[in-house]
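Team,

Forwarding the record for the chain on the shared tracking sheet. I've put the sequence and predicted structure together so nobody has to dig through attachments.
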Amino acid sequence: MRFSLIPLLLLVIPVLEIVVFIAVGGQIGIAATLGMILLTAIGGSILLRIQGFATLSRIRAHMDAGTLPGRELGNGAMILVAGVLLLTPGFVTDSLGFLLFVPAVRSFIWSSVASHIVVQTTGFGNRGPHSHPSGDPGVVDLDPEDFAERPDPSSPWRGGSERRNLR
């Protein structure tokens, strides 16, 4: 049976948080401990907003250039996890969250994880304004001014007064 790390973390992290709460609370007091937790949550939400919007703009720039924003998507995911960790009360999760906001740490994590990620694309990249999204060179999309509609009297879907109500 394969050992999973997530159930272990779900048990270990709360225990570590309790131990650290008791140790810090014993040193600086309950009010200061709660104040620090509140300040880290506020600081984390500010960092999440700043770095999150910066990452979204870099992803948009990659998409506009027609390139895959793989690294930026990875950074965005790590920033999201960092925000969740910082909003979770506790010093251990706050420490991990602040570490994920450091670009060098995210770069290290990305370089160790990126080789295990496989990206498959469908219909992505630079296409001309009149090419079909499927990439088939035999299909050309026309603008509305490039064609005209002409009614076909033999068509069962012709418009006008002969239209039947099929309810």
